[in-house]
UniProtKB/TrEMBL annotation:
One of its GO terms (cellular component) is cytoplasm. Residues 124-411 form the Peptidase C14 caspase domain. One of its GO terms (molecular function) is cysteine-type endopeptidase activity. It holds the Pfam family Peptidase_C14. This is Unnamed protein product. Residues 17-36 have a biased composition (Pro residues). Residues 37-50, 64-90 have a biased composition (Low complexity). InterPro entries: Metacaspase, Pept_C14_caspase.
Length: 421
């Protein structure tokens, strides 16, 4: 669904902010979610012509049958026979829940420590759910609006979220404040994090087109920022990973949980979090914390991981020179510059930065493949660790789709801890 648009217009008239938005935004939050029920007709007439969206989704053509393989009815056995033995090692286990205690964690490969606090997710719960079908364009998607309504019901029924604390932005609504144009999405992000306290739990779910654009601030090793595309992106621009990080991650206090779920193309590091995990064993496969330091940072990390002390030592000097030049303030400023956070931020994305995500059909309903898999796995068994959740979602999707979901975080996590939200 969510393929990379060919050359979105340049010069949208904004630049990513250098810091978090001011507190107290001076306006009311967007209206709450519309009535539930997925059978309502799309509403037209927003007062402007819908922009031409990104190109049609690219999907694998070899294995997209609609058949289900033991996905329903509360069973955990949604694996093929060849995978069952492997999956038994992490099904039906008891996982410890986070205690909310402060953590003092050494940053691998350095003498620096990072202070953060996990959330128990027992405080206030809020969610912003954004689904864009790009109605009226030549490249309309089909499942994104369904995705956010399914997520809304999932959060209410399984994790105690209140309907009044869930904001839904979709492009089938007649009230302009609820349409997912750029201004409304940014306003919703600000509402989501405003006033958050320790042990609160916040959810951001985006289903729509995603892509990449040229990196303008030098924080991406591959030279591209991940972006999401609001309904009005051709006139007002995309929303970059830098901007989402500045709005939704930087302002958070220690002990606040933000769980992000991106069902879009090129979304592997869409929230610009520093640590990305391997699905095989939960080890850290990518230290985005070093990407501000460029290739020297990558060499330092690889030297640490592989045991090549000479590579690590020779690279560390230039690493910290680059980091401290761009963050000349105190220790907290340096940690934030490296995209770390004292809060508890987790992101699941539908694919790698280099991949596309599928606009699919499951059980007769149009849906994003990642949204469907996440809700299916968690609905069948809420006793998941971060690692088993990632593994089970990947296993479920692998039967029909090529995309590989990703897990990233603002701090190093114990992937065997119970996932809560």
């Amino acid at each position: 669904m969510y393929n990379r648009p060919p050359g979105p217009p340049q010069g949208y008239g904004y630049a990513p902010p250098s810091g978090p938005p001011p507190q107290g935004y001076g306006y009311a939050p967007p209206p709450g979610p519309p009535p539930q029920g997925y059978g309502y007709p799309p509403q037209q007439g927003y007062g402007y012509a819908p922009p031409q969206g990104p190109p049609p989704p690219q999907r694998r053509q070899d294995n997209y049958g609609r058949q289900q393989q033991s996905y329903g009815g509360g069973s955990n056995n949604y694996n093929q026979n060849s995978q069952q033995q492997q999956q038994q090692s992490y099904h039906n286990r008891d996982f410890s829940a986070p205690t909310g205690q402060a953590q003092h964690q050494k940053i691998n490969g350095t003498n620096q420590y990072h202070d953060f606090r996990l959330s128990t997710c027992q405080g206030k719960k809020k969610a912003l759910l954004v689904g864009i079908n790009y109605i009226g364009t030549n490249n309309r998607l089909n499942g994104c609006i369904n995705d956010v309504h399914n997520m809304c019901a999932f959060l209410i029924n399984n994790f105690g979220y209140a309907k009044d604390d869930i904001v839904i932005l979709t492009d089938d609504q007649t009230m302009m404040a609820s349409v997912p144009i750029k201004q409304n999405i940014i306003r919703g992000m600000q509402w989501l994090v405003n006033g958050a306290q320790p042990n609160d739990s916040l959810v951001f779910h985006y289903s729509g087109h995603g892509g990449q654009t040229k990196d303008l601030d030098g924080d991406e090793e591959d030279g591209f920022d991940d972006v999401i595309y609001p309904l009005d992106f051709q006139t007002n621009g995309e929303i970059t990973d830098d901007l989402m990080h500045d709005i939704m991650v930087k302002p958070l206090q220690p002990g606040v949980r933000l769980t992000a779920l991106f069902d879009s193309c090129h979304s592997g590091t869409a929230l610009d979090l520093p640590f990305v995990y391997r699905a095989q064993d939960g080890g850290i496969k990518e230290y985005n914390v070093w990407k501000d330091a460029g290739s020297d940072g990558l060499k330092a990390v690889m030297g640490y991981v592989t045991g090549d002390r000479s590579m690590m030592i020779s690279s560390l000097g230039s690493v910290f020179t680059k980091i401290t030049k761009s963050a000349t303030g105190n220790y907290d400023s340096k940690m934030k510059n490296m995209k770390m956070s004292p809060a508890d931020v987790i992101s699941f994305s539908g694919c790698k930065d280099s991949q596309t995500s599928a606009d699919a059909s499951e059980n007769g309903q149009a849906t994003g493949a990642m949204s469907w898999a996440f809700i299916t796995v968690m609905s069948q068994n809420r006793e998941q660790s971060y690692l088993t959740l990632l593994q089970n979602v990947r296993t479920l999707l692998a039967q029909k789709y090529s995309q590989k979901p990703q897990l990233s975080s603002s701090h190093q996590i114990d992937v065997n801890m119970k996932f809560v939200m």
